[in-house]
From TrEMBL:
Molecular function, one GO term: ammonia-lyase activity
Source species of the chain: Synaphobranchus kaupii (Kaup's arrowtooth eel)
Protein name: Histidine ammonia-lyase
Family: Belongs to the PAL/histidase family.
Domain of life per record: Eukaryota
Length: 291
């Protein structure tokens, strides 16, 4: 994603780079020749200088690169294995390649996409928890939620109605850690470049923290999903709604019921994988009702 974002910026024609160099970068991207880029090294001031320097390093045939054909190897070898030549940069093109915020943007984009995916699945998991706790569905009545002008609230209530067929904790420490991770990175700004950049955004660290928070939320919801499915076993032979039964069957395809003591870490990892692949949201797609 980072290389694609960099190409997008360079292609706009405002970065002082030649077409020849841009075409060479696009050829490397199309061949999936990707430079090794460390996730640390940017303060988010004038750009992600260190990470983008590593991006350019591989393109000029130095450092490490990866491709599906070669795996990780010497950058020059990887390029040559795909019939490509290392870049020979023209005046000022070095600066054009390293000045930008595509590291922050790529990490931030992944965090946003995963957050949206887990938010959709969180409603389904919460509905299953409500069901096994024998909660009431009256709280999600469409007329009640139409009283307040909050689209997000109404959408969540609609999701609950859809899966409940109603018209009307390792997890604790993970949640606690998220509280610390949500502390703004910008307050830890440091003066850089001999004080010419007296305040920096620390955007790279903020983006990495956002990704970590999303992953922690995924893990917490994976644990809740496991607990809710196990609770459903205690209510058998009673059945829940078709969409929630589908969620239960999905979980049972990768994790068997806890009928005796066993190591739970593999089960949590399997449930987390389901959520990462957005499979828990499938029942919502298959069983929806009008809002």
């Amino acid at each position: 994603m980072l290389l694609a974002l960099r190409i997008n910026v360079l292609a706009k024609g405002h970065s002082g780079i030649s077409l020849e160099t841009l075409h060479a970068i696009i050829e490397a991207f199309n061949a999936s020749c990707l430079s090794f880029i460390p996730e640390k090294g940017t303060v988010g001031a004038s750009g992600d200088l260190a990470p983008l320097s590593h991006l350019a390093l591989g393109l000029v045939g130095e450092g490490k690169m990866w491709s599906p054909v070669t795996g990780w190897s010497n950058a020059k070898y990887v390029l040559e294995a795909h019939g490509l030549k290392p870049l020979s940069l023209k005046p000022k093109e070095g600066l054009a390649l390293i000045n930008g915020t595509q590291m922050i943007t790529s990490l931030g984009a992944e965090a946003v996409e995963r957050a949206l995916a887990i938010a959709r699945q969180a409603d389904i998991i919460a509905a299953l928890t409500l069901e096994v706790l024998k909660g009431t569905t009256k709280a999600f009545d469409s007329d009640v939620h139409a009283v307040r002008p909050h689209p997000g609230q109404m959408q969540v209530a609609w999701r609950f109605r859809s899966v409940l067929d109603s018209d009307v904790f390792s997890s604790e420490i993970t949640v606690s850690e998220n509280k610390v991770l949500c502390h703004p990175s910008s307050v830890d700004s440091l003066s850089t470049s001999a004080a010419t950049e007296d305040h920096v955004s620390m955007g790279g660290w903020a983006a990495r923290k956002a990704l970590r928070v999303v992953e922690h939320v995924e893990q917490v919801l994976a644990i809740e999903l496991l607990a809710a499915c196990q609770a459903l076993e205690f209510h058998r032979p009673l059945k829940t709604t078709p969409p929630l039964e589908e969620v239960h069957q999905l979980m049972r395809s990768v994790v068997r019921p806890w009928d005796c003591d066993r190591f739970m870490s593999p089960d949590i990892e399997a449930a987390h994988k389901l959520l990462r692949e957005e499979k828990a949201s499938t029942p919502l797609t298959n069983h929806t009702i009008s809002g």
